[in-house]
């Protein structure tokens, strides 16, 4: 039964779907986490399967977990991690392709940022409200190599076994991985009578003629092969052959590259979702992302997000309606919350205001009415104005991101000429975008330093006395400047001639005195 037929239209409006996505972030940092989470917010994701977070251990993950959890307006995330604890080898140090240009540099390896690691991030509000119920702890099959993590989740009548996967890059290792890791994982879910939802970076495709794109001699080429070795191994395993590629089921002939090589030479649909056969009719996998999310994907990582929507199985288990009543007052514009710096400034300002909260009920009531109607609106308006000016500085960067998103869309088209031109243009746009982003970051750093200087200034006692005396006698600053300029003009033009006259007169008197003291006898 298709998704649209599961519920009546009114019921669908009252019972939102569970949106989950998979994203190969290619390295998490404390700086790029806000950009990723903002993109996931725009896509309204409740669960995110993360690959290649590059965090080596639980000790290193603490600041990252705190960064995920501290999101305003209940948009924080609870993250379940799996780390790559094995040593870096030639088989695991490469990324989604086997090209040497994609290997990790020595400085990154020595710094402990081993490539790999998977995680599942769930909205904290979904867990806190009981909308999503976790059954047991996060599980993994086989060694702790940062390639598999599984969670049992109950939502809206569904009993799901969700797994985030990051398959090896080389075909022999992938085939062994399918047999040793994924087959037992599927068997355990079936034994627990749970529906499978697998998402991640699988590092292979089933049909290269639809899911791959490459360039040969500068020409965009579509492979003619319709299968490959790993796909044959997958099809030969009964536990995996029954799983459904959701995107390919709903878009049989569409081309959608989820990974593009940075140099623009090739692309593949490596990121996807598999579900149990009985669950596939209740899941929708859209073929297009929001444009704002797409341009962030191709800029912050070489992988795009793949999103799926799961319909609730029963109304009594679904979340309550979040729609506003028809006569509700207008909401405040809080666009500034999209900016991490302004959001943090607002939180600090709010803490200071709440520190002055009165103690009596009547005083609290008066304080709240004034705070809500005047003080809060004024502060939000000021922050929105700052956010607007920041966005003006971002205009050039956003334009290039739009261009990059357009080129990525052209790569997924059917026009060979457009595909070839887009692949050739993508590296140049990436380079220019990187340069502009560095300039923008320098601008923000300068602005931050100036703001710190102004906020940390201390008054000078001498300067305060001078300015205070000037204000006390009520002498305008313009008059003081005029007197100073007049004195300067007089000093430059009249003092030299006066000083010369004095010197000449002094020399004349000295000569007269010497001649009088020493008369000359002829």
Q: Oligomer, anyone?
A: single chain
**Reported CATH architecture of the largest domain:** 4-Layer Sandwich
Contiguous low-pLDDT stretches (5 residues minimum) are 1-15, 87-112, 316-328, 510-518
Q: How far apart are the first and last residues' alpha carbons, in Å?
A: 141 Å
Number of helices: 18
Content-based structural category = alpha+beta
* Total of domains: 2
Number of strands: 16
- Looking at CATH, which topology of the largest domain would you report? Deoxyribonuclease I, Chain A
State which percent range the strand residues make up: 15-25%
Mean pLDDT: 76
What's the level 1 CATH class of the largest domain? Alpha Beta
Helix content: 40-55%
Strand order of the largest sheet: 3-4-2-1-16-15
Cα-based radius of gyration, to the nearest Å? 34 Å
Task: Please identify which CATH superfamily of the largest domain we are dealing with.
Answer: Endonuclease/exonuclease/phosphatase
Global geometry: globular
Major beta-sheet overview? 6 strands, mixed
Describe this structure in words.
The chain has 522 residues and is an alpha+beta fold. The protein has 2 domains: 15-102 and 110-315, Endonuclease/exonuclease/phosphatase (Deoxyribonuclease I, Chain A), CATH 3.60.10.10; 335-455, no CATH class. The chain is built from 18 helices and 16 strands. The protein has a 6-stranded mixed sheet. The protein has a 6-stranded mixed sheet with strand order 5-6-7-8-14-11. A 4-stranded antiparallel sheet has the order 10-9-13-12. Strand 1, helix 2 (33-42) and strand 2 form a beta-alpha-beta unit. Helix 2 runs antiparallel to helix 11 and helix 11 (291-300) crosses helix 14 (395-411). The radius of gyration is 34 Å and the shape is globular. Mean pLDDT is 76; it is low at 1-15, 87-112, 316-328 and 510-518.
């Amino acid at each position: 039964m298709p998704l649209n037929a599961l519920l009546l239209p009114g019921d669908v409006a009252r019972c939102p779907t569970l949106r989950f996505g998979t994203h190969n972030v290619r390295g998490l940092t404390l700086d790029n986490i806000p950009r990723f989470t903002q993109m996931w917010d725009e896509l309204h994701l409740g669960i995110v399967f993360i690959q290649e977070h590059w965090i080596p251990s639980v000790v290193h993950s603490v600041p990252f977990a705190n960064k995920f959890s501290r999101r305003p307006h209940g948009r924080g995330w609870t993250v379940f991690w799996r780390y790559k604890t094995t040593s870096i080898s030639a088989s695991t140090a490469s990324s989604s392709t086997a090209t040497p240009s994609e290997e990790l540099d020595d400085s990154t390896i020595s710094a402990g940022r081993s490539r790999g690691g998977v995680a599942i991030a769930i909205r904290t509000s979904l867990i806190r409200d009981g909308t999503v119920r976790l059954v047991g702890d996060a599980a993994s099959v086989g060694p702790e190599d940062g390639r598999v993590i599984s969670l049992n989740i109950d939502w809206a009548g569904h009993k799901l076994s969700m797994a985030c996967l990051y398959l090896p890059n080389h075909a022999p290792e992938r085939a062994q991985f399918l047999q040793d890791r994924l087959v037992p994982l599927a068997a355990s879910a079936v034994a627990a009578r749970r529906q499978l939802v697998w998402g991640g970076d699988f590092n292979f495709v089933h049909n290269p003629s639809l899911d791959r794109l490459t360039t040969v001699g500068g020409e965009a080429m579509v492979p003619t092969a319709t299968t490959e070795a790993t796909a044959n191994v997958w099809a030969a395993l009964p536990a995996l052959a029954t799983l459904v590629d959701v995107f390919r089921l709903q878009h049989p002939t569409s081309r959608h590259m989820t990974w593009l090589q940075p140099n623009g030479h090739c692309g593949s649909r490596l990121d996807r979702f598999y579900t149990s056969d009985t669950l596939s009719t209740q899941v929708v996998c859209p073929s297009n992302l929001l444009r704002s999310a797409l341009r962030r994907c191709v800029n912050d990582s070489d992988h795009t997000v793949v999103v799926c929507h799961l319909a609730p199985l029963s109304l009594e288990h679904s979340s309550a309606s979040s729609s506003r009543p028809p006569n509700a007052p207008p909401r405040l514009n809080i666009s500034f919350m999209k900016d991490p710096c302004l959001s943090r400034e607002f939180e600090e300002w709010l803490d200071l205001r709440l520190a002055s909260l009165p103690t009596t009920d009547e005083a609290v009531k008066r304080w709240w009415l004034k705070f809500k109607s005047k003080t809060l609106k004024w502060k939000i308006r000021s922050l929105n104005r700052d956010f607007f000016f920041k966005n003006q500085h971002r205009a050039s960067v956003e334009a290039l991101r739009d261009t990059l998103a357009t080129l990525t869309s052209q790569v997924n088209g059917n026009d060979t000429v457009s595909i070839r031109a887009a692949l050739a243009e993508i590296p140049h746009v990436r380079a220019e975008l990187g340069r502009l982003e560095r300039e923008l970051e320098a601008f923000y750093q300068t602005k931050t330093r100036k703001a710190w200087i102004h906020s940390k200034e201390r008054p000078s006692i001498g300067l305060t006395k001078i300015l205070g005396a000037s204000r006390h006698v009520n002498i305008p600053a313009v008059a003081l400047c005029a007197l100073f300029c007049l004195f300067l003009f007089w000093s430059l033009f009249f003092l030299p001639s006066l000083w010369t006259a004095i010197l000449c007169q002094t020399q004349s008197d000295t000569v007269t005195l010497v001649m009088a003291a020493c008369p000359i006898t002829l």
